[in-house]
Write a structure and sequence with these properties.
This protein is α+β, with helices and mostly antiparallel strands. The chain has four helices and nine strands.
């Protein structure tokens, strides 16, 4: 993959470490044959799977149970043009085992909008990719000094 002083690929462990530092990511899936993205809070399980807790009747659960999805989380600073992005790709499954559900009830994510009788959904970390951008502050400063045509908003 392409790398420069301002861009680098993150390995699996570094990607997981960063992923564990943010509370919200985005599930990328297919809804009615079209791409869909849903922001959701999450946590990581001990086997690196992404865990979400939601309503069993949600459109998300119906759309992703048993399907390969992507999950993305990131953190960026527009001023310094630096940050990172991690994507986990894997099969999503609703946790049906009562003992596993009980374990996750103690250690898994807590929904920001707690559903009644919620379900845990696991997204297996079959593939993890991460990228880091280390600011092009000099470029940002140069670009801000360039006059822009009136009315372009650019």
């Amino acid at each position: 993959m392409f790398q420069t002083d301002s861009f680098r690929t993150l390995d699996r462990q570094e990607s997981l470490r960063l992923l564990a530092e943010v509370p919200v990511g985005r599930v990328v899936y297919t809804r009615q044959a079209l791409p869909a993205v849903l922001p959701i809070n999450f946590s990581l399980d001990e086997d690196d799977a992404v865990l979400v807790y939601t309503s069993p009747a949600s459109d998300l659960v119906r759309a992703i149970d048993g399907v390969v999805v992507a999950f993305e989380a990131d953190e960026f600073d527009a001023l310094t043009r630096s940050g990172w992005s991690v994507v986990v790709t894997g099969r999503a499954t609703v946790v049906t085992d009562p003992a596993e559900h009980e374990r996750l009830s103690r250690s898994g994510p807590i929904s920001w909008m707690p559903p009644r009788d919620g379900v845990f959904v696991r997204i297996d970390a079959e593939m993890i990719t991460g990228r880091e951008v280390n600011g092009a502050v000099g470029v940002a400063a140069k670009e801000s000094a360039v006059p822009r045509p009136a009315g372009t908003g650019a």
